[in-house]
């Protein structure tokens, strides 16, 4: 039997298989209040054949919102809506972690409370644009966080973790990739601070480590994961010595007893899996453009403990079944990836329906 379909330990949980659903922004929340809409529980329950589902990125506080129609975990209404998702996933026997995503400077004043500037480690305008309620808008020069404000952001991560567990999530994953706030602190190109959160690699890693410490205090390390994407270079992220940066960061993670480290590679010039997996003592999740064959090769070679699939899971709600039966996969409708209604969200057919047709 393929190793994809064997159990694996992830923190305090025994997962039924090693086919993990990646966190994917779908923008199906009410933009005014960050509450997920009524079809979101169906979307996640359809995909509960995964050994673990990692939710779309969810902002911990209103100033962490970076895109139109993305969800939060700050208010009672948001928590109650997410309970319907976790109940639906658990009813089908799977596990689900919430990915907590603070976008930092990758935002726009129109999405911030009181039209404030987005926040960041340094007042450096990133290149590019973000989607707002009125269309694409250029990123702006963000507000540089004071030390007191950094401590407040960390506190919001802590509260978000507490709220996620209250909503029934089995754990949380800190989004430390894609050029969002944790990676903005980590990378030398976006962090020009002169205090304890800037300068050396150790100082630049301090924000992520303090956030993880707060999250772990709330949930326990065996219910916490971290996602990183070395040299993805998305959203204007540049680092002068990325191999040394990630080497040092991962070395410092083991003190937390994390459930998993999720490493997604997109065009990195070196094999970070070979560099980082031996340094991490928890369950190592490999992501980034995998298909069934490449995932099985990685598992058989011991390069990963479990494998993460994004778009393939988006368009194939029963992806593990299709893998097991070597069945063809659905084709994606990229025009419906972000925003909209049920079309391209909960209407992708499962294999049995396709065969019946």
Query: What distance lies between the first and last C-alpha atoms, to the nearest angstrom?
Result: 29 Å
Residue windows where pLDDT falls under 50 for at least 5 positions: none
Structural class: alpha/beta
How can the largest sheet be summarized? 8 strands, parallel, barrel
Helical residues, percent = 25-40%
Explain the overall architecture.
- This protein has eleven helices and 14 strands.
- It is of the alpha/beta class and 357 residues long.
- An eight-stranded parallel barrel has the order 3-4-5-10-11-12-13-14, surrounded by four helices. The protein has a two-stranded antiparallel ribbon with strand order 1-2. Strands 6-9 form a two-stranded parallel sheet.
- The longest helix has 20 residues, at 147-166.
- The mean pLDDT is 97.
List keywords for this structure.
oxidoreductase activity, acting on the CH-CH group of donors, NAD or NADP as acceptor, OxRdtase_FMN_N, Aldolase_TIM, two-stranded antiparallel ribbon, 357 residues, TIM Barrel, 11 helices, alpha/beta, 1,2-oxophytodienoate reductase
Secondary structure: elements and pairs:
Layout: E1 8-10, E2 13-15, E3 19-21, H1 40-46, E4 52-58, H2 76-91, E5 95-100, E6 119-120, E7 129-132, E8 135-138, E9 143-144, H3 147-166, E10 171-175, H4 181-186, H5 201-219, E11 224-228, H6 242-251, E12 260-264, H7 272-276, E13 283-287, H8 292-300, E14 306-309, H9 311-315, H10 319-324, H11 351-356
Parallel strand pairs: 3-4, 3-14, 4-5, 5-10, 6-9, 10-11, 11-12, 12-13, 13-14
Antiparallel strand pairs: 1-2, 7-8
